[in-house]
Amino acid sequence: MLKKYILAAILINIYILTVIILFYGIINLELLSWTKLILIACLYGGSICLIIYTYLNKKAIIYNSGIFLTVLFSLITIFNIIELNNKYSYVENLYYQKYTYDKYSIYVNKSTTTYSNIKKLDGKKIGMLVDNSDNIQAYLNDIIDIDYYTYQNIDDLVNGLTSGEVQSIIIDGNSYNIIDKDYSKIKSKIRVIYTHKIKDYI
Fold first, then answer.
1. Could you give the strand order of the β-sheet that contains 99-109, starting from the edge strand earlier in sequence?
2. How far apart (Å, rounded) are the C-alpha atoms in residues 80 and 78?
3. If you average pLDDT over every residue of the chain, what do you get?
4. Residue 133 neighbours by CB under 8 Å, 6+ apart
5. In contact, 170 and 128? CB cutoff 8 Å
6. For range 140-162, the mean pLDDT
7. Quick one: pLDDT band at residue 125, thresholds 50, 70, 90?
8. In whole angstroms, how far apart are CA 172 and each of 47, 130, 136, 176, 184?
């Protein structure tokens, strides 16, 4: 009897640990809205309650079903962790934070309706600041085929877009806030077509 409960305790703790690791990535990367996050948390919480119920049941068939479900749910969660980590490499940040994920947006001239989404930029030119350009390019390479132009400062970057040297620019929130400090009202002339989190080393 004792061995049965020890096995159950080990398996459910492994499952809970994998759930925590998965949720750490989802929350840290802000991949889901809070509504969806709460819904998924309720589903995982329900699965844990169901498993505990099967472990406490005296019928062997129900207990064994609980063992099976724990292993199955753990494998599914581990698979999701691996998939998420392959894309965002977030697991190593559990031990030592080497990077963050910052929200970057792609902007185009408001005067053109040609570029309605990121796929429309295929084969075009995009400007970016030198800082973190390697990670930005690595991310975009998996989505579109585009030529990269790097700039030393935000003024040159924005001028590159308004002059037509590039068809789009990609910047984070901090860089966007700097625009128009000289009252040039550039923000009124550009629009965002794509936003996503991209790795940025600390």
1. 147-151, 125-129, 168-172, 99-109, 190-201
2. 5
3. 88
4. 148, 150
5. yes
6. 91
7. very high
8. 39, 13, 11, 6, 19
**DSSP H/E element including 126:** strand 125-129
Q: What is the pTM of this model?
A: 0.66
pLDDT value for 12:
94
Other residues' Cβ atoms within 10 Å of the Cβ of residue 25: 20
Amino acid at 64: N
Q: How far apart are CA 127 and CA 166, in angstroms?
A: 6
CA 60 to chain centre: 42
Tokens of 62: 């129900």
CA distance 104 to 124: 18
> 3-state secondary structure string, 22-75?
HHHHHHHHCCCCHHHHHHHHHHHHHHHHHHHHHHHCCCHHHHHHHHHHHHHHHH
Which of the two residues, 87 and 151, has the higher pLDDT score? Answer: 151
CB neighbours of 167 closer than 8 A, spacing ≥ 6?
108, 109, 115, 121, 124, 125, 126, 161
Inter-CA distances, 3 with 16, 35, 56, 60, Å: 20, 40, 14, 14
